[in-house]
Amino acid sequence: MPQYTLNIAHLYGDLMNTYGDYGNIIALRYYAEQIDVTVKTTVISLDNTFKSADFDFVLFGGGQDYEQTIVAKDLKSKAAELQHYIENDGTLLAICGGFQLLGSHMIMADGQRVDGIGALDLYTINMHDSQVKVAKDARLTGNIVIKNNQTGEVYHGFENHQGRTFIGDQELALGTVISGNGNNGMDNHEGIIHRNVFGSYFHGPILTRNGNLAKRILATSLSQKYPDINWEDNLKQLPTESF
Ligand code: GLN
């Protein structure tokens, strides 16, 4: 019997799961089981309480504007606990719509403003904004490749978003765009890394296509919980998959 457990919260897994973002959990489980770690997943959705101490990893997937308006209202009740989780170095992966809602606010395609929880220094605008100079009315859709400037790792994905996201000067991007659009199609940033939060527009899902990132995120989560074990070394021995 494995003696280690990774407790995962799938935030709004029933509403925010564009292009099978749940596959990110499957990818983590795939590597975790090979190193005798059991993965337990709980969907935390509308009206459920999120307790940061209960979880070692949080997935907040993508969703369309309509779902985001519903989620944004509920998210207010979870904001303080999520902030606490993030500032205590909890590991979290936020994709597309989830990534947008961790910022201060977003302007939807219909011009409506929706507040995020402001945990990360980022905001999202839409085609109505004068800051959007390129491809004004187009969605940013297609294959995308980025390079992580800290590790040199290259990540592949698929993006499909209307929102244009801008991260603050003090925030680090997940990577620099090699091909595709990224956060806004203008500044060559894709995603964000803030403490142990990884934000990205990549579907695919990002962790099934990029085993290097899956291992890095899994090692980060497990090291927070079981700091006496060298999880990075344990995971290095496994083949890195790209499905
Ligand atoms: N509704 C958001 C946008 O279009 C997010 C889309 C998504 O999560 N795929 O920008």
What is the gist of this entry?
26% of the residues lie in helices and 28% in strands.
Total helical elements: 7
Query: What is the averaged pLDDT score?
Result: 95
Assembly annotation: single chain
Under the CATH scheme, the architecture is 3-Layer(aba) Sandwich
Q: What is the CATH topology classification name? A: Rossmann fold
Give a quick set of tags describing it.
4-stranded antiparallel β-sheet, Lipid II isoglutaminyl synthase (glutamine-hydrolyzing) subunit GatD, 6-stranded mixed β-sheet, 243 residues, glutamine amidotransferase, glutaminase activity, globular, 26% helix, alpha/beta, 14 strands, EC 3.5.1.2, Rossmann fold, binds glutamine
Give an overview of the whole structure.
Forms a heterodimer with MurT. Pathway: Cell wall biogenesis; peptidoglycan biosynthesis. With 243 residues, the chain is α/β, with parallel strands linked by helices. It has one domain (4-236): Class I glutamine amidotransferase (GATase) domain (Rossmann fold), CATH 3.40.50.880. The protein has seven helices and 14 strands. It has helices at residues 23-34, 65-75, 79-87, 97-101, 206-209, 211-225, 231-236; strands at 4-11, 37-44, 57-60, 91-95, 105-107, 113-115, 122-125, 140-147, 154-161, 164-167, 175-179, 189-190, 192-194, 197-200. α1 crosses α6 (211-225). The longest helix has 15 residues, at 211-225. It is globular. Glutamine binds next to α2 and β9.
